Amino acid sequence: MCVTCGCESGTVAHDHDHDHDHDHDHDHGAATTPGERGFGVLRPAVTRTVSLEQDLLAKNDRYAAGNRARFAESSVLALNLVSSPGSGKTTLLVETLRALTGRHPVAVIEGDQQTRLDADRIAATGAPVVQLNTGKGCHLDAHQVGHALASLAMPAGGVLFIENVGNLVCPASFDLGEAHKVVVLSVTEGDDKPLKYPDMFRAADLCLITKSDLLPYVPFDAARAADNARLVHPGLECLTLSSTTHQGFDAWLAWLERELHACTARAAPFAAHEARA
Q1: Is residue 197 helix, strand or coil?
Q2: CA 72 to CA 80: how far, in whole Å?
Q3: Mean pLDDT for each 10-residue chunk of the chain (277 residues)?
Q4: Cα separations (Å) of 58 from 39, 72, 87, 174?
Q5: How far apart are CA 97 and CA 211, in angstroms?
Q6: How many CA atoms are closer than 13 Å to the CA of 17, on its beta-carbon side?
Q7: Distance from C-alpha of 242 to C-alpha of 212, rounded to nearest angstrom
Q8: 0.85 cut: is pTM over it?
């Protein structure tokens, strides 16, 4: 089970490994002594408080640190794309890959519970892609991503996009080794979503408000959505765009270029040390 939400976390593409230490202390109602039972007299139940000190996410964080080191070695900007189902993540990713073709190396890890439908859409752009199916699991973890990297050519000096399972809860807690979480919110959802799912927006470094071409037809206020996102994460950068008309897309691509430059600058001292070694 997932330690966060209790979901089944077995994968089809790769094994999903979780530690589960359960220490339950059950008191079902009040206890009685043999003499008391006949008279229906109950004595108070004895209760105990059990503290679990173990960091349940520590194992995932160790795998994430290993992934992060591998990305740094190759100057790879790793982005974890998160959202609820139907936000337009895959369409956004397809259009982004097309825009980056010939400019930067790219690769994709595609997460879904079942099928490789989205991976096939990614592959049609010519980008290298590995599919991860989580079965009943509702998120990717760092161990799975590490396994996927063994089957994927690292886009040295470029971008690795990790498209997470559609879910605004569990992926907020699982570090995959990425440089940034990018949360995607479509205008077909409520502009109060950041207030309902604050952990995800608090964990993200960028919020993309997608499907802006539908704004004339839906009761969604993009400015209010951005304000709500900043209520839970002050200073969060928010961009509004359409993957269909490409309105606002230049700002998203400019953000990618900026982060790629910063990634390369961070990796330069590491590369120099490796060369000396």
Answers
A1: coil
A2: 16
A3: 52 42 43 46 62 68 96 96 96 98 96 94 97 89 95 95 95 96 97 97 98 98 98 98 97 98 77 52
A4: 52, 21, 30, 10
A5: 18
A6: 14
A7: 5
A8: no
